[in-house]
Amino acid sequence: MTTRETQPLETSDADSLPTHGYITDKDRYLSRLKRIEGQARGVARMVDEEQYCIDILTQISALTAALRGVALGLLDDHMKHCVLEAAQLSPEAGQAKIQEASDAIARFMRS
Q: What is the percentage of the chain residues whose pLDDT exceeds 90?
């Protein structure tokens, strides 16, 4: 397991708390994740009710697609915010964030 930098580079002016690239879309992400949570409960209910295998697999496919959508949105926000900010700070910081993003993409592709 590798250690990753957890402190973002940018802070909000109002309270000097760290911000993340997704913060402007936080409510949208939370809403999507709540829908995904409901879908997961629905799949569990389908299994409990012994519904048809293909119908369950169809719902799992939809659930997987929804999670991938969230992941891709977060990755896009990370690239536009965290990587860009790091690159503006220094070439070394930019390279570190690019490597972090590349590692995340590689993990994402394996799943």
A: 70
Residue with tokens 């994402």: 108
Q: What residue ranges define each of the domains in the chain, with the CATH number in brackets?
A: 23-110 (1.20.58.1000)
CA distance 47 to 78: 36
Dump pLDDT digits (tens) for 58-84.
Answer: 999 999 999 999 999 999 999 999 999
Backbone angles phi, psi at 90, to 5 degrees: -165, 155
In angstroms, the Cα distances linking 33 to 26, 43, 83, 94, 111 are 10, 15, 24, 30, 18
Paired strand residues for 18: 11
